Automatic annotation (TrEMBL):
<keyword id="KW-0378">Hydrolase</keyword>
<dbReference type="GO" id="GO:0000287">
    <property type="term" value="F:magnesium ion binding"/>
</dbReference>
<dbReference type="InterPro" id="IPR036412">
    <property type="entry name" value="HAD-like_sf"/>
</dbReference>
<protein>
    <submittedName>
        <fullName>Cof-type HAD-IIB family hydrolase</fullName>
    </submittedName>
</protein>
<dbReference type="InterPro" id="IPR000150">
    <property type="entry name" value="Cof"/>
</dbReference>
<dbReference type="InterPro" id="IPR006379">
    <property type="entry name" value="HAD-SF_hydro_IIB"/>
</dbReference>
<dbReference type="GO" id="GO:0016791">
    <property type="term" value="F:phosphatase activity"/>
</dbReference>
<dbReference type="InterPro" id="IPR023214">
    <property type="entry name" value="HAD_sf"/>
</dbReference>
<dbReference type="GO" id="GO:0005829">
    <property type="term" value="C:cytosol"/>
</dbReference>
<dbReference type="Pfam" id="PF08282">
    <property type="entry name" value="Hydrolase_3"/>
</dbReference>
């Protein structure tokens, strides 16, 4: 493959805090492709949550669910669902503690609770439709990620109880549940292994905790100006904030534009 491969996180990276795509970012992605580079998305979101964004940018390769569902040019390349018996156990535990769970596969997401303020508030920040109620949705399906809704500090009991799962907070009321060791970095690694791309030719842009491993794994990790300090600390390059043409300037900084 000619050119470099660039992975972009969505929230706080491609999209600003109002979930808008800056014009400079749209132009930057177009120019990257014109120069022969490959552009992909790496996100904690499910594929159905950013279909319109992919279409707008002309991107058909992506790492979804923090590495658990990887697609190259529209075709699944790697999947890593949560084991059904493990999913049953964490569901039972969450129900006992009155913590809602949302199940996510490649098509959609469903909640095991009809209504909960934590679900509405945290999902609402993503500017996507609220999940429908279906407490049995996970049965007989491949679930790649779940959302657990609890306050900061309550997750420790889950971490102590379920060593085969990782719990990564993305909102004050919500956490991602993933197979242990799952990450955007792992998904990217699976993709470039199959495509024969050298790690040194990989660039990644991100801003939050679920981007840490990705930025460390990439040959060049770029933190947005609005990134957490812990993310900036491990990045090779720090660009401007997403709403200050951060993608455009970051690509200039690393010599891709």
């Amino acid at each position: 493959m000619k050119g470099k491969m660039i992975f972009f996180d969505i929230d706080g990276t491609l999209l600003d805090h109002d979930k808008r795509l800056p014009d400079s970012t749209r132009q930057a992605v177009r120019e990257l492709k014109e120069k022969g580079h490959s552009v992909a998305i790496a996100t904690g979101r499910g594929p159905f949550m950013y279909k319109e964004l992919r279409e707008e940018l002309g991107i058909d390769s992506y790492v979804s669910y923090n590495g658990q569902y990887v697609v190259w040019q529209g075709k699944p390349l790697y999947t890593n669902p949560i084991r059904p018996e493990l999913l049953d156990s964490v569901t039972e535990y969450a129900v006992r503690h009155n913590h809602p769970i949302v199940y996510m596969d490649h098509d959609t997401m469903r909640s095991n609770t009809e209504y909960h303020a934590y679900v509405e508030e945290s999902i609402g920040t993503l500017k996507v439709a609220q999940p429908s109620f279906d407490p049995k949705y996970h049965l007989g399906r491949e679930i790649y990620q779940c959302l657990l809704f609890c306050t900061i500090g309550e997750e420790q009991a889950y971490k102590d109880t379920f060593g085969e799962l990782d719990f990564i907070r993305w909102h004050q009321f919500s956490m991602d549940i993933l197979p242990a060791g799952g990450s955007k970095a792992k998904g990217i690694e699976k993709m470039i292994e199959k495509l024969g791309i050298d790690r040194s030719d990989v660039y990644a842009f991100g801003d939050h905790l679920n981007d840490l491993e990705m930025l460390q794994f990439a040959g060049t990790g770029v933190a947005m100006g609005n990134a957490l300090d812990s993310v900036k600390k491990i990045a090779k390059v720090v660009t401007r904030a997403v709403d200050d043409d951060g993608i455009w300037h970051g690509l200039k900084q690393v010599g891709l534009l």
